[in-house]
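Page 37, top half.
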Amino acid sequence: MSVRNRLAAATAAVGVITALGLALSSAALAQPAGRAPYLSHFSKIKTVASTVPHNGDLNPYGVFPITRSVGRLHAGSILVSNFNNKKNQQGTGKTIVEISPSGHRSLFAQINPRTLPGRCPGGVGLTTALEVLPGGWVVVGSTPSRNGMAATAKAGCLIVLNSNGRVRETFSGHGINGPWDAAAVVTGRGHVALFVSNVLDGTVAANGKVVHRGKVLRLTLRLYPIGPPKLVSSTTVASGYAQRTDPSAFVIGPTGLGFGRPDRLYVASTLTSRIFVIPNALTRRDSAGPGLLVTAGGRLNMPLGLEIAPNGDILSVNGGNGRIVETTPASRQVFSRFLNTMGSPKGAGALFGLAIRPRGGVWFVDDDLNALRLLH
């Protein structure tokens, strides 16, 4: 069964699931009236390149655009991480590809779990958690499975590679348990706040039942002039998100993260089709629970990847219906359109990571095509 059909089956089985959260006041976050939605400026979709490397890895998840050239990272190119192997087994993908704007694909890294320089429980299965830090340090999440099934999923780790695609270290423990997506913020004085959503706390043991143990960590990393960044501290800034394993869709839980001003972290709760916001994300010392509810339902249908548009709106792509949705911080869903209409239901399970193109538009991966595409 294709990944699209697997997630479509999972969508049908979700039913009505609720999560705790407080409604966000529209008045408190009012925006200028009459401003056109960011997505309304773009109407064309083109396929840039296949994301399948020579080893046959499938199911592109993470997307990150390179803005500065260093090592083998070329400004203007896009990194994409793969979650599946050539047999389409989830949690077994080991490659990151680099794609130029003209569509040339090259292999940035193929990670060997047997030669990792640190702990990574379960091995390697690269997720949507893909970030590039100052100095060209690439951080990618691993939520691995032995055989493609959630029953064998392990805690995994965050893998740190240099700008030439060589693995230099891993971050494990410290609350990391199924790193699913990430967002990085440079906080000054040689530090980075790396927010990571986690989806495996209690899910495997629950054997398909919903548990409200999904969480978001803030990992404080120290940068150095020479050598890889180091993990300084870990703080749980959000918790209580609905999540569960699924024999078809691997795991469904909190996914997309996006940092917005001033000091707000937006979180896509995939299983409940909601988006929450965590206030004071950079400074808080405790969990905000799920946070404040920004939007629920409407055009949202299992939101996965999430990014903040240049105008401050929240962009999310749906795993349930192939749509991208734009929501204002004041909780209004102001624009939506299909990025994928294949299959039945249309576009289910096709969309994962996305990123803003600096010149305007949105890069996104399409799992039906195993390709990087561009809305422009």
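Page 37, bottom half:
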Amino acid sequence: MDNLIIEGKLVEVLPVQEGVSTRGAWKKQDFVMETMDQYPKKICVSCWNEKADEIQKFQPNDMLKVSINIESREYNSRWYTDIKAWKIEGSSTNSGNATNPSEPAAGNDDITGISFSSDDEGDLPF
């Protein structure tokens, strides 16, 4: 998985979390997006440090295009998955798709709201 992108509507920006670790001060900002698929899904995405400030320039219902990394880690025999944004942009998706989400956008074969791109065209993302 070289590049993961989520496109959808900003639903909510959650409260900022801040703290200090052995590496210094940190800031985390979570936000919730909703995909514009036939069956929309809500996804909670995290921004860290300077990226946490970027999400503040967007308002609920703004359309976003977010480049993400997904990582899971184990702690005490339980697995936790983080979705971290590394690039946040306003989306150019036209509002017509929002009124009829069952109609796919031109050139968009993605039914989950997450698009995968790879240098190997024949590879499946799973």
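Margin note: The mean pLDDT is 80.
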